[in-house]
Amino acid sequence: MTHAGRERPAFTIDAFHRGDFWLVQPRDAGHRAGMDALMLAAAVPSGFRGHLADFGAGAGAAGLAVAARCPDATVTLVEQSAEMAGFARQTLAHEGNARLASRVSLLEADVTLTGKARAAVGLADDSCDFVIMNPPFNMASDRSTPDELRRRAHVMEDGLFETWLRSAAAVARPRAGLALIARPQSLPQILAALAGRFGSAEIIPIHPRADAAAIRIVLRARKGARGGLALRPPLILHEHGHKLSARADATSNGQASLFGD
Amino acid sequence: MTHAGRERPAFTIDAFHRGDFWLVQPRDAGHRAGMDALMLAAAVPSGFRGHLADFGAGAGAAGLAVAARCPDATVTLVEQSAEMAGFARQTLAHEGNARLASRVSLLEADVTLTGKARAAVGLADDSCDFVIMNPPFNMASDRSTPDELRRRAHVMEDGLFETWLRSAAAVARPRAGLALIARPQSLPQILAALAGRFGSAEIIPIHPRADAAAIRIVLRARKGARGGLALRPPLILHEHGHKLSARADATSNGQASLFGD
C-alpha cells in the first residue's frame, strides 16, 4: 500500500543495463518492466543487424535493451495501450536515451490486426528481420489485482499466441528471427501457433532456483526454418540463496546474450 | 564390427537394477534396452499400486523395472514385433526374474489399433492405472542402420504420438498416470496429442552434460487432469567427464524415482 502525496509523480525513471538506458514507467499502475523484458531482449544475438519489432513493448524496456546492446539494430516499439505508449514516448524523449533514440521508433497499434488493417496501421508485411514479443501471458484464472491497466497487460485471451504469432510471421522477412518469453504452461499453444510459420525453435527454461520448476521459457525460432525443437540448458536465476547468478546478472544487464551468440 | 562364431548365441542376458531383474535381448539386432527404458520406468512413483501397461515394451526392460521397484504393481508388456515379444517371453521365463514374473504378463499386440479391434486383442478400455511408453521415436531422416528390426523400432511414423496416446487414453482409467520418453523435437506432436486426454503434464529434460542441449524428455501426465504444463529441473546424465551423475545412477538403478515420488 502506498500513500502518494500530491508531489509524488505517477511515474518512475529507472536505469537499466547499469545506466545504458532509462525507462519512464508507471509507478503503481500498469505493467512495470523487469526481468522478463530483459531476458527477452537478451535472446537477440549481439551481432544482430537489421530491423526489429518489439510486440507489446510497454514502456519500451525490451526494445531499448536490444538497441543498447546491438549498435546496428533499428527498433520499432509496438504498443496498443495509449497509456503505456505515452510512457514509451516519454522514455524515448528522456535525455539518458539520446544515444539510442534515433534508432528507436514507437508505433501505437494492435498487433492482433490482420491483413490490410494490420498493414494500414504501420505493420507492413516482410518488413522485419527480428520480432520479439512479451505477450500478456498471465492467466485470467490467476489471482489478479483490481488495477485495470495491469489486468489488460496480463490477462491471457483465447488464441493469444495464435494471433500474435500470425502477425509476427506476416511482418517477418524470410529467415527472420523470433523470440518470445512466456510461461511454461503456454507451450502447447505456442508450439501449435509456430507450426508452419517458424521452425528450428530453441527453448531456454528459466528457473528461479536450481531445484524449482521453470517460471518462464524463452523461445527463439526462425521464419520458414525446418529444424526441430531443441531444449537448451536452463538459466538459473538465483544461486546461493537470493543472489542473482552470474549468468542471470550478465544476461539481464546487457553483458551477454541468452543463447551465447 | 563383431565376428560371431557358431557357438555365440544371438542374444545376451543382462542384469538391470544391479541384479534385481534380467533381460534376454538380441545381441546385435533389434532394439537393445538401455537408459531410455530405465528413465521411463523411473517416472512411475515408487508407491504406485495398480495395473500398468508398457506400450512398446521390447524385451521388457521398462515394465520389469517398474515391477522391480513397485511391489504392488502388476504389469502388461505390450509389444507388436513377434521377435521382440519372443525375447520378452524368454525374459519372463528367466530364473532371475522369478520373483517378479507372477506380476508381469506379455501381450503381443499393436497399440495403434482402435475401437473394438483394440479391445479384441486384449487392450481393454478403462483397464490401466498407468501407461508408460517408449515409442519408436528416431526420425526417418536420421542416419539409420540397414538392420530391419532396428529400423522398425526406430522409424518415426506420421501421427505416431497421436495413435499411441489415443490408445493410452482409451485403456487408462480416469486419473490414471501416463509417462513417456521421447526426443525434444517431438514435443509439438506430443503436446497436441495430449490435448483433451491427459493434463497436468510435467516434463523433465535429460541432458548428457550440463552445457549440452537435452537429448530426451520424460513427460508425465494424468488422464482428465486440468493443470497446465510444468517444466521441472533437468536431469544431467554425466558430471565430471564421463562419470554418471549420482542422480542418474540412482534413477537408472531403481534406487529413486525420477520425479522424486
Highest-level CATH class of chain A: Alpha Beta
CATH superfamily of chain A: Vaccinia Virus protein VP39
- So what's the overall shape of chain A? globular
- Tell me what portion of residues of chain A adopts beta-strand conformation: 25-35%
Number of strands of chain A: 11
Rg of chain A, rounded, reads: 17 Å
CATH fold category name of chain A: Rossmann fold
Count of the separate structural domains of chain A? 1
The interface involving the most residues is between: A-B, 26 and 26 residues
Q: End-to-end span of chain A in angstroms?
A: 42 Å
What sequence of helices (H) and strands (E) makes up the elements of chain A?
Answer: EEHEHEHHEHEHHEHEEEEH
Roughly what percent helix of chain A? 25-40%
Specify the CATH architecture of chain A. 3-Layer(aba) Sandwich
Write down the overall mean pLDDT of chain A: 89
Number of helical elements of chain A: 9
Multimerization state: homodimer
Please characterize this protein's 3D structure.
- 2 copies of one chain form a homodimer.
- Chain A is an alpha/beta fold.
- Chain A has one domain (11-252): Rossmann fold.
- Chain A contains 9 helices and 11 strands.
- Chain A has helices spanning 35-42, 61-69, 82-93, 98-101, 115-120, 148-154, 160-171, 187-194, 246-252, and strands spanning 11-16, 21-26, 50-55, 73-79, 104-108, 128-133, 172-182, 198-207, 216-223, 230-231, 235-236.
- In chain A, strands 3, 4, 5, 6, 7, 8, 9, 10 and 11 form a 9-stranded mixed sheet that branches.
- In chain A, a hairpin with an 8-residue loop joins β8 and β9.
- In chain A, α1 packs parallel to α2 and α7 (160-171) packs parallel to α8.
- The longest helix of chain A is centred in the middle third of the chain and has 12 residues, at 82-93.
- The first copy, chain A, is globular and about 55 Å long.
- The termini of chain A are far apart.
- Mean pLDDT of chain A is 89; it is low at 1-5 and 139-145.
- The A-B interface holds A 139, 183-185, 187-188, 191-192, 194-195, 202, 205, 207, 210-214, 217, 228-234 and B 139, 183-185, 187-188, 191-192, 194-195, 202, 205, 207, 210-214, 217, 228-234.
